[in-house]
Sequence to fold (134 residues):
Amino acid sequence: MKQQLILSKRHWREMLDHVVREVPLEACGLLAGKNERVQKVIVVRNQAQSPARFVMDPYEQLRAFDWIESNGLDLLGIFHSHPAGPAAASVTDIAEAAYEVVHIIWSRGQNRWQARGFWIENGRASEVSLQIME
Ligand SMILES: [Zn+2]
Fold:
């Protein structure tokens, strides 16, 4: 399990822009990098086109995995949004977590978006610290 994930302000902004653009639908994407350091944000279309659920477009996801591998990086995280809350992993998120990566959940509370990181394993979500650097 990872204790933290390190992101740049640019990565943060790229995720936030995508999340805001997709409102009222849930948005999703992947984070690639090495160890705990994110190097690339890859947005992926939400095939479900739903405000309460996300399913990554399988073709875009496969292309992203190919890109990550061919650039010598690892999949570090998966992010998605909860446009109508809550700021935590849902029962579905926990049940469907298929990769041992940090799950970042964006939620909108009082008109301000926030993101929290979780490690999901054995049916439980524990918080992972997100460090934002220059
Ligand atoms: Zn969710």
About this structure: Residues 80, 82, 90, 93, 105 surround zinc ion (CB under 6 Å). Helices lie at 9-22, 58-70, 91-96. The two ends are 25 Å apart (CA to CA).
